[in-house]
Design brief:
The chain is α+β, with helices and mostly antiparallel strands. Among the domains are: 91 residues; 122 residues, hypothetical protein PF0899 fold (2-Layer Sandwich), CATH 3.30.2320. The protein is built from 15 helices and 17 strands. A 7-stranded mixed β-sheet has the order 9-17-14-10-13-12-11. The N and C termini lie far apart (71 Å). About 2% of the residues have low confidence.
Length: 459
């Protein structure tokens, strides 16, 4: 029987799946070993200061390793999914004579994305679906633009130093607000890296739009009800109220800098370097905004809503101690969610130090509430059977702090991306460095207030 032949994309997919978790196995085993040592020391009820210090160090070590496992697993998931998406694109495009050219298929997809993004940037209020639908990918123009764009990144001075034809071609991706549209592949690389490093993006709903805001209808009430007999008609019942949720997008920017000598080095992959720098910056700023942003010029964070159980408020639950975590507090917070949300996928969000403190807590039966995953390829730890994700934007444990959050996040919070990232190159302001000014538009807000509960460090 002849050996099955795979395309390069298919081989890459299979390789990603085969190697999933290989790089995390040793770290996972060490984390489990250290956690077992931590439990033994805690169970010994130590009064010795040295032992208590050792317990704290073990807790920090375990939480750091868990955080690393979480990020690597998210990156692996994203990488495998990207490969699968590429293969699907290639398989959907029949080639000449029944064969397939996956590279051309992917270029068509990138070219189409670039053209659509450019249209959305040219029209601040957005582009209709009908206009998007009728675009035909111009692969040759996209190839030429990518080549000129790379030269633009490296060239001493600015775009005026390009040849006349190159400058003319670069203008096909110009932004009316200044700068040039980042090629689709580079833009996707930036967004992908942001996703890998931001746990909130990984657990919430994400929408991509071509307009200035995302809108949907939300239920704000329940339908009325009643009983009727065999011969008596039921009375008219109330109609549930519906409201419109509108999430606008705001401009997020990053300004990485490089020396001209570095940019002129032909060996350096400037696009990858810039993508790493910009993604790191975007991830930190976005993550903080989704948690604590005030909604004025930035996304609205879920911790900024008032305490309550009505629309526009999020319930806060006291965790039973004025200055520390308690096991009963975690139970109280989780089970303030209604049964509907408890039956969905719920995830805890807290700072890494809070996770380290939670590792030492036991429930009424003497069992530790924090449990590590026993499977290296699915490494998320759990508290009360809900996965734990670490976010540096959640406040640390302190008096009155909102340190523990749980939610059915797919329903609770929506992140909105406006397609397209733009770039301005500035070789003048911070001489002898070249500054790159990246802009993207993003929004975020709570869509279901009942799907989130916040734990407060208070009695």
């Amino acid at each position: 029987m002849a050996e099955m032949q795979y395309t390069e994309v298919e081989k890459a997919v299979l390789n990603e799946i085969k190697n999933l978790g290989d790089n995390t196995k040793a770290n996972h085993e060490t984390m489990l070993k250290n956690y077992e040592n931590l439990k033994k020391l805690v169970d010994s009820k130590p009064d010795d200061v040295v032992i208590k210090t050792h317990i704290d160090k073990l807790a920090v070590d375990v939480s750091v390793r868990q955080d690393d496992l979480d990020k690597k697993f998210a990156a692996s998931q994203k990488s495998v999914q990207d490969r699968i998406d590429q293969m699907e694109v290639a398989m959907k495009r029949p080639g000449f004579g029944g064969s397939m050219d996956p590279n051309l298929a992917l270029e068509e997809k990138e070219a189409l994305g670039w053209q659509r993004s450019y249209m959305s940037l040219q029209n601040k209020e957005g582009v209709t679906f009908e206009r998007f639908k009728n675009i035909k990918p111009n692969v040759e123009l996209y190839r030429q633009y990518k080549d000129v764009f790379e030269g633009f990144l490296r060239k001493a001075g600015d775009e005026r130093n390009l040849a006349a034809e190159e400058h003319k071609l670069l203008l096909t991706g110009s932004d009316p607000d200044g700068g040039y549209h980042v090629p689709t592949a580079m833009s996707a690389r930036i967004i992908g890296k942001v996703y890998e490093s931001d746990p909130i993006r990984q657990i919430c709903t994400t929408e991509t739009i071509s307009t200035a805001a995302w809108e949907c209808m939300v239920d704000q009430d329940e339908a009325g009800y009643g009983w009727e007999g065999d011969t008596v008609a039921g009375a008219e019942t109330s109609t549930p109220k519906e409201g419109k949720k509108r999430i606008p997008v705001y401009t997020l920017y990053g300004k990485p800098r490089a020396t001209q000598t570095y940019l002129e080095d032909s060996v350096v992959n400037v696009e990858n370097w810039l993508a790493d720098k910009v993604a790191s910056r975007f991830a930190r700023i976005e993550g903080a905004a989704f948690v604590t942003g005030n909604g004025v010029g930035s996304p609205r964070g879920f911790l900024t809503y008032g305490n309550g159980t009505t629309t526009g408020t999020i319930e806060r639950v006291n965790m039973g101690n004025a200055s520390a975590l308690t096991a009963d507090g975690f139970i109280d917070v989780k089970y303030h969610l209604t049964e509907y949300f408890l039956n969905q996928s719920t995830t805890w969000l807290m700072a890494r130090g809070t996770v380290a403190a939670a590792m030492k807590l036991k429930d009424g039966s003497g069992d530790y509430i924090w449990k590590p995953s026993l499977i290296a390829t699915d490494p998320y730890s759990t508290i009360l059977n809900s996965p734990v994700r670490m976010s540096a934007s959640i406040p640390a444990v302190a008096v009155g702090a909102l340190s523990v959050v749980i939610g059915a996040w797919k329903e609770a919070y929506t992140i909105v991306d406006r397609i397209g990232i733009t770039l301005q190159r500035d070789p003048y302001t911070v001489k002898p460095l070249v500054e790159f000014y990246f802009r993207k538009r993003v929004g975020g807000d709570v869509c279901n207030y009942d799907a989130i509960k916040i734990g407060v460090i208070a009695v």
